[in-house]
Amino acid sequence: MSDSATDRSFDLTRHRDALAVVRLGRGAKVPAWASASTLFSVTATADETSIVCHASSVPAKARKQGPFVAFEVTGPLDFKLVGVLHTLLGPLVDAGISVFTISTFDTDWILVQGGKADAAEAAWTGAGHTVHPPVVPQENDA
């Protein structure tokens, strides 16, 4: 079995929540307004703290970008697999679509500006990947 992702297609799921990427200062604590959603991420470096959270919860004065639409690569992905993001970002580069990516233990997430989400989906399907619609929870789901 090959460890290369460049010769395969992937399944992605498009999520419904509008997300924002927020920049906080170095060593900032996670603020109470940073509400969880489909994807909630905190990344801290020596220079900054970045939060990805539900866009509706971010104060107007916060330094932010968005809204973003999240696309989740169906996983889990093997850590030995080489070129997943290369394979998935190539069609977006060709379409002139900027992204913000996050990797978790199990998979990769690709965030696309809300106005470019349909174009991203079209670029992926045109390249042989499959994009699934958001899973809508049923009222009776617990």
Query: Class in CATH?
Result: Alpha Beta
Gap between N and C termini: 39 Å
**Mean pLDDT rating:** 91
Low-confidence runs of at least 5 consecutive residues? none
Proportion in helices: 10-25%
CATH fourth-tier homologous superfamily = VC0802-like
- The tally of strands reads 7
Output the number of helix runs.
2
Structure description:
The chain has 142 residues and is an alpha+beta fold. The protein has one domain: VC0802-like (2-Layer Sandwich). It is 15% helix and 34% strand. It contains 2 helices and 7 strands. Strands 1, 2, 3, 4, 5, 6 and 7 form a 7-stranded mixed sheet that branches. Strand 2 and strand 3 form a beta hairpin. It starts with 10 loop residues before the first strand and ends in a 10-residue tail after the last strand.
Task: Give a short overview.
It is built from two helices and seven strands, in the order ββββαββαβ. The chain has helices at residues 84-94, 117-126; strands at residues 11-24, 41-44, 49-54, 64-73, 99-103, 108-113, 130-132. A hairpin with a 4-residue loop joins β2 and β3.
Q: What is the element layout, followed by pairings?
A:
Blueprint (H helix, E strand, L loop, with lengths): L10 E14 L16 E4 L4 E6 L9 E10 L10 H11 L4 E5 L4 E6 L3 H10 L3 E3 L10
Parallel strand pairs: 1-7
Antiparallel strand pairs: 1-3, 1-4, 2-3, 4-6, 5-6
Helix pairs in contact: 1-2
